[in-house]
TrEMBL record, chains A, B, C, D:
Pfam families: ArgZ-like_C_1st, ArgZ-like_C_2nd, Saccharop_dh_N. Keywords: NAD. Residues 190-400 form the Arginine dihydrolase ArgZ/ArgE-like C-terminal second subdomain domain. This is TIGR00300 family protein. It comes from the Bacteria. Residues 105-188 form the Arginine dihydrolase ArgZ/ArgE-like C-terminal first subdomain domain.
Length: 411, 411, 411, 411
């Protein structure tokens, strides 16, 4: 093997299983290692630290292995400066670009360490000295412009993995785990606590909501949560907004709905609901002119809460508010994640993955779905502090509203 | 085709789709038909009636097709008497035996019509004249004894399918359907209404409960329902009873449970819990001696509610109360279904199917499970009046207790 | 009730259950009916016909109910002409617009019947007299332009439901059904027969493919099918194309793949693969310059087979060939469905629904997926002639290639 | 904390993640620890070793924690002798009994180390000096008899965890993992290799088979494997045997089956098939008298391969060969696992768990099922060397027969 580098990592290396995952990575990337030094915590709560010399066949392989290890909080010992290279073409990163994680990241450049402003995974790192004071931020591939100064290789980059204690702030139990057959009442209370805490910290609550929320009868609960100030911003697709508005427009009583939901009746209602809002020009216009008088979208519009709707190829026709260009939609979502301190994903497959793609790892997220596969996909995604709850979204939101909204369901 | 028979059927033949299913059956069994007469209801609520001449290759095929059609409420026109043949061997029905449905059934024998006492599917019909007044009852294959007088063929048998209105008594919507993405709160209320009505009618409430009820934290809700008189008899396996007792014995707080449930800790606790009860001699003995002081089994024992536990090959060791012989277990279950007017199945796969096997079609049943496949299996099973609810059992029981038990969870 | 209309329907009304579904629809829409006449087929293969007077509260409700009934092949008796109204705004249909089905449809206009050129569901019907000879075609809401002449109401429209026999041409068994636990070898042979027949008929084979096809090791099978001429056009998302190209670029041997697929290694590979193709400018350019030398996309490019890739909000970055605007993507898909005679959907959730949205009901489609919920969603979708097969896509494609490609896997 | 003990563990502690799981266990059991010594392997393939002093509140807690740790291969340093206590009652183990793992276990007793003859989890350890030469064996709770000499506590017991290399013999990749979206062809070949190797080693191949194998059309493949000598013993329930015999008796062609499998037709066939075999007296008798002439059970009987059928409460009536007492059934299964070197579980939920309960951890097992939850349950079960493959059982067996049986499907 030709290329080697010494790296270090500190933390609860053994009781979080992180060290085994590091060694697995080295093997998976075809590398080898020598454990130079290993200071082990003698008692249960002491941190450990390791110094490892990592080898790979050549420098390119080594660089890629080192990028991989940074997702585990492993940083090179060397104090070298980061290297950069200009982007040669719009939408294309230079060869050897540093592929970001969504962890807190610092870059050593021009003699000083700089925090990356908006950690997001699978982006490039762009150094911006156009304003006074150098800034480093993530830029998605689609937004790269010719001439941008992009970090290449792993030199001069340090990544911090959230410690166990930080994570424990938001959840009684540790890390990412599936809830499956867990006591649900306890989980609802923990989520409610996390939401109250987020609000107390002055952070925003982001919801990602799928159309199942309407079908399971959870609209009143979610409307109550919007009104009580527990929804600061909402991401969804055309489906959620359309079903919600269809329910608002065709005010069918629950009884009738129950008996027809499976039928194609709603199908035709949906098409007419879409046409009605397209005619009004926007959801807000339809609310203002008195066409839409209830539902989730109505609550958001009247409560002046922002929402981002992004379409999919599955939509038969988009509402006027829907971003039909998915890259534009992602940009709109990015513009709304500042100050988000907690994220709830409710029966939202596509948009849940999309949101997990752009959120920093430091934002706790809760994914609720009846389908274990959906929940696993989010919770195993990247390095997020995700928690999965396999349960019924309708009953979950009902309980959450009872917990958080005084007087619900009467109020 | 050699053998034919004219049959008749009356009811809402078209709006319930029953006529198409009848014609499908005839085709599936390789038979043919002529629709002799068809009186169609002119308005939406009028019943229709049809007279159909059914043909098959030979008499044996015809008899089997006619048995099949009886599960749809189709009866032969002829007023012939039922034929019988004696069983020649213990545990074996005579050739050509009439295989029962679980529908209300009458048999024309010795010049009079007799109601079958205990409709159960896949049994033989035994005519019993040992007591004054002839009786006809279903007998499972395992309980056939040499010399029993068993009905063969379809002559002289009439079966009644429950009408739409009867079914509508217990549910707002019609027949067997999956709830999946339905408003859960409405469903909980409908189930609660059915339970109250059953109690008001002087009928018994049967529960079939799987071990998931313990894991989802629903023990307090179910205990409250037992104490409030909403559980008259409970069927379960070794797993439910053992996990419930394990929780009672090792009184771990919810917090600890959440963090360990996935581990093998409970595994070892379970083995010790089993040994403890085996030592006491029975669950009731363990309650009496003060070893078990809480939980579902404790509530049943102290409330003098009967339960039937039947083991499976998966059990590592059975509690002393568990029937390890499954045929004996089925007999014990049959002995407890008299006067059952409503059946709730909670996360109980194996025992739910076993109960559906022996219940008459006239008993409404509700099957709640997070896994759609389990729910479908029960709801599509036989000709039952089943309703499936795909949801979280823990949250469902919590809501049901809130609906039915005054003061819950405080009381 | 104020508004009524007499309608008629002919076919195997009872043995296909269609009549019960018609009566269910009337009830679901709050209407009522009188069955004026019912000519019943006396023998199993005779068609029946019914004349029904349908009532609704007002004319608008009646029109909507009649549109609904047309999805069942129920047509009004009256020989009135179709009414039209001009679109007043781009992207918005006029009030009372006729919402299309994907069934064969004829419109009576200007004194003659005209076939609708491209049946597609949830569209408007536009009458085009700009060219010599009047044409009627479906137009999706997004493509409506001010001044277009749009059909409103149900007068003058007749819809034909495919007969049972037509459907039986493509499948041994009838209609839409789930395969779940069915003999898979038989199903593979039936699909192969349908594909050969389609080719013999001079029609095109459309594939909709999800990324799971790469993971399950089915790339060689699908490449063989492309080369043997069994793939005429392919619809997919960014995921399938990216994973396929990633595999082509990072030519990791199967062994290594197996051990790493679950890891984030492929994650980083994917980002670099994306950047590489973006740098080349297009997939075809990357094939031409020798960067991509194997895989599904390579086979399509070298075989000059068209493909349509449409992105989603979940994509981290799109390949240059991907439509990021979903409405533009839908248009590109529509442009490729002419002459499609058979459609195969392989582990493709999002794009499978999108394709089912635009395909005429007359195109048989087969949906293969390991997840029963995905399969059900497609097979229950609209009025398509869909068939679901719940099985492993990798093994299914392997068997299909063995059946269709001489010499596979050696050739 | 009052009680402490020093333990040691050796192996690839970090790269297998075993050390983190050990420390998790200590926490979960409410204990504490000091890491006295930690010799770390400096290069990738060196083993590490650790000496840990474990503390718990009292001696009973400590003993239970130590038993738990033994499932990880952690053994006490002390060379004490094992303690024993006599069983005081049939079917009940003495207090403080050592609860076994299914790992290779040695007991230090009467001054020497003795191998446990038949490692099985959740049993007691019984010391038998009735024959010349002391023997130690596992005894399930149900088979405990008064006076048996049972090991209590953890002193004098050493457990060995299979090393990574041993496991690698049977599978290219390491340990227990789910296959889900993996290249299936590779997996089939690996399983075939494991089966050939087992046969070459003179060990037996155990199959556990569920009724889905019949439905998916895999009977011919499994029959070919029986005839070619790749099935030495088969465990199943009443369902598999009954469906297999039903298919043999009612020899319906595949076409007809496909169209009716979903119906209740098979339901009635099943009841008649059951009665036919009950009349014959046994499956072998029905084969001998020429009633059953094909299928899996026929192949086993004519090939003189043993099978164990154990019933469940779900069976409507058992075949005469079925153990209706589940404890007797478990004993019959135990009697057949000697010399088993490889175990295949095909779509068998209940009996798969039951078999995993009694197999030693040293037997590699492969669990194939379409439902990921079933596969996970087996693979996460105890400490087995299990491998899960989420795929279609029908296609899997077809491919396996092609791989192993020369001339299949022609031969």
């Amino acid at each position: 093997m030709g290329a080697k580098e010494t790296v270090e990592v500190t933390g609860h290396l053994m009781d979080t299983g992180i060290l085994s995952r590091i060694l697995d990575d080295i093997r998976d990337y075809g590398g080898d290692y020598v454990l130079d030094q290993f200071e082990v915590g003698h008692e249960a709560h002491d941190p450990s630290s390791a110094r490892i010399t990592v080898e790979a066949d050549d420098d390119e392989s080594l660089q890629r292995l080192l990028m991989r290890l940074q997702t585990r909080g492993v940083n090179p010992m060397s104090l070298a400066e980061a290297s950069t290279r200009p982007a040669e073409r719009d939408g294309v990163l230079p060869d050897g670009f540093y592929a970001t994680t969504n962890l807190d990241t610092r870059v050593h450049i021009d003699g000083a360490w700089h925090d990356v402003e908006n950690p997001e995974m699978d982006c490039g790192l762009v150094v911006d000295s156009s304003t006074p004071g150098l800034r480093v931020r993530t830029v998605p591939m689609t937004d790269v412009r010719t001439g941008m100064r992009v970090v290449v290789g792993t030199a001069g980059i340090r990544v911090a993995v959230p410690s166990r204690d930080e994570v424990a702030d938001s959840f009684a139990t540790v890390g990412a785990e599936l809830a499956g057959e867990r006591p649900q009442a306890v989980l609802v209370r923990q989520v409610a606590d996390g939401m109250r805490q987020t609000r107390a910290d002055g952070k925003r609550l982001l919801w990602v909501v799928g159309p199942g929320v309407v079908n399971t009868g959870a609209v009143p609960a979610l409307v109550a949560l919007v009104r009580a100030g527990f929804v600061d911003v909402l991401f969804a697709g055309n489906g959620l907004a359309t079903r919600d508005i269809e329910q608002a427009l065709y005010g069918t009583s629950i009884g009738v709905e129950v008996s027809t939901q499976g039928g194609d009746h709603g199908h035709e209602h949906r098409v007419r609901a879409l046409n009605t809002i397209r005619k009004a020009g926007s959801i807000a216009a339809a609310v203002d002119e008195g066409t839409v008088t209830s539902g989730i979208m109505h609550a958001l519009v009247t409560g002046r809460k922002p929402f981002v709707l992004v379409g999919s190829v599955r939509d038969d026709a988009p509402l006027p508010d829907v971003h039909t260009d998915v890259v534009a939609g992602q940009r709109a979502m990015r513009a709304e994640i500042r100050d988000v301190g907690y994220c709830l994903m409710m029966a939202a497959q596509l948009h849940a993955v999309a949101t997990a793609n752009i959120l920093p790892a430091s934002v706790p997220l809760v994914c609720v779905d009846l389908d274990p596969a959906t929940v696993t996909r989010i919770v195993d995604h990247g390095t997020s502090r995700g928690r999965g709850i396999v349960t019924d979204v309708g009953l979950f939101l009902e309980q959450l509203a009872l917990e958080l909204v005084a007087g619900y369901p009467r109020g």
